[in-house]
Amino acid sequence: MLSFGLASCSSGTSAGQSPDDSGGETRPTATSRASDGDSDSTAKKFTNADYEEAVRRTEECMAKSQVELVNRGWNPVNGQEFILTYRAKTVPGDKVFEIAHACRATHLNAAEAGYKEDNPAIMAPELMKAIQQCLTDKGIRVTGQEKNSQDLVEAVPTSRRVDLLDCVHDNGRKIYPALPITFP
């Protein structure tokens, strides 16, 4: 069995547009956004349900080509995306990536970008607490008010970034042993 993990990737498709399933042309998605110049405050906000629905459609798209999308849950580092991997028993590796790219471009990329735009990155509280404690134990002062990766990067002096990475990865592996932990 072939198994792949793939971080979020982008396509050449504009947000709010996706390639038509038949290939070629683009069509508006159900989650199209107001244009950048539109000041309408009623523009659609991307919710967890919108993102989860886009992942479900991506899963269905991939299944049609005998590729299984495995959703490993919300990314604990940023809380803005699911950790998705792909498995296929009979599909060659390069074809798996081709199928994943096409299905993501059609069903997921615009929703994922919109979700990230509308929902701030927030690290899982138990991971943040463990990282803050680890940094404190290493003599690095943190405020305790950090909420995400960017806050941690800003709080830790550049000369101590290796310690930050060690704290993130060590605690990530301890709390989430089955998940890949990536940090900016």
Beta-strand percentage range: 5-15%
Q: What percentage of residues falls in helices of 4 or more residues? A: 40-55%
**CA-based shape:** globular
Q: What is the spatial order of strands in the main beta sheet?
A: 1-5-4
Count of distinct structural domains:
2
Order of helices and strands: EEEHEEHHHHH
| Largest sheet entry | 3 strands, antiparallel
User: Unreliable runs, pLDDT <50, ≥5 residues?
Assistant: 1-40
- pLDDT averaged residue by residue: 82
User: Rounded to an integer, what's the Rg over CA atoms?
Assistant: 19 Å
Could you give the count of β-strands?
Answer: 5
Counting copies of identical and different chains, the oligomeric state is single chain
Q: What gap, in angstroms, lies between the N and C termini?
A: 31 Å
* Helix count from the secondary structure assignment: 6
Structural class: alpha+beta
Keywords:
alpha+beta; disordered N terminus; 184 residues; two-stranded antiparallel ribbon; 2 domains; 3-stranded antiparallel beta sheet; single chain
Task: Provide structural commentary.
This protein is of the alpha+beta class and 184 residues long. A 3-stranded antiparallel sheet has the order 1-5-4, covered by helices on one side. It has 2 domains: 117 residues, no CATH class; 51 residues. The protein is globular, with a radius of gyration of 19 Å. Helices cover 41% and strands 13% of the residues. The N terminus is likely disordered.
